[in-house]
Amino acid sequence: MLGGTFDPPHWGHLAAGLEVRHQLKLSVVLFVVANDPWQKSASAPVTPAELRLEMARAAVEGFSGLEAGASEIERGGESYMADTLQELRARHPDAELLMVVGSDAAAGLDTWKRPEQLRELATTVVVNRAGRSDRRCPEGWPSVSVEVPALDISSHDIRSRFAQGRPVEALVPRAVAEVVRVRRLYGCSL
Ligand code: ATP
Ligand code: MG
Question: What digits encode the pLDDT tens for the residues 135-145?
Answer without folding.
Answer: 788 999 999 99
